[in-house]
Amino acid sequence: MCNMTNDKKQRVTLFLNPSIAKHARAQAVVEEITLTRLVEKALIKYLPKETVIKKAE
Questions:
Q1: Left (φ > 0), alpha (ψ -120 to 50) or beta: where does 43 sit?
Q2: How confident is the model over 14-25, as pLDDT tens digits?
Q3: Inter-residue contact 36 to 9 (CB < 8 Å)
Q4: Nearest to 2, CA basis, from 40, 50, 39
């Protein structure tokens, strides 16, 4: 389960369509938040609360 209050960060490299990246940066400015925070908010909203991965038998 993802701890939403954890302040530790992990650097991640993503390859995005330039127009999506531009739109995201603009939205972050409008919301007065960082691009990191915008992406975190989007992922939290998108992802299920818990993901269970079962080992194949």
A1: alpha
A2: 999 999 999 999
A3: yes
A4: 50
